[in-house]
Amino acid sequence: MLHIFAFSLIMTAVLWLLAVVAAKWMHLSEGSKRALTLTLVFSNANNYGLPVLLLAFGQSGFHLAPFMSSVRLFSSMFLVATLHPVPK
């Protein structure tokens, strides 16, 4: 199960990096940067992936899905909050 966590972590980092590069390329304001980052990093596709997860990993992997999703979500939210502080 560690490879699932590693993939999720790498995917989050790549999406975050893509958001940062795209925001710089488009010369976005700070608020728009945060909005773009949140949109790219937080996919709302957990329910779509559940049948695939059940098929690929069986019942033993299926019961870990909510935990892994929560860890990814809260880690990503923490990154966005600390790396893109609100301007004063």
| Beta-strand content bin | under 5%
Largest beta-sheet characterization: none
Low-confidence stretches: none
Strand runs, count = 0
Radius of gyration: 15 Å
Structural class: mainly alpha
Mean pLDDT: 79
Shape: elongated
Order of helices and strands: HHHH
Distance between the termini: 42 Å
Count of domains:
1
Percent in helix? over 70%
Number of helices: 4
Keywords: Membrane, Transmembrane, Transmembrane helix
Organism: Sporolactobacillus inulinus
Protein name: Transporter
Transmembrane segments: 6-23, 35-58
List the helices and strands and how they pair.
Blueprint (H helix, E strand, L loop, with lengths): L1 H25 L3 H12 L4 H17 L2 H19 L5
Protein name: Transporter
Keywords: Membrane, Transmembrane, Transmembrane helix
What's the short story on this structure?
It comes from Sporolactobacillus inulinus. The protein has helices at 2-26, 30-41, 46-62, 65-83.
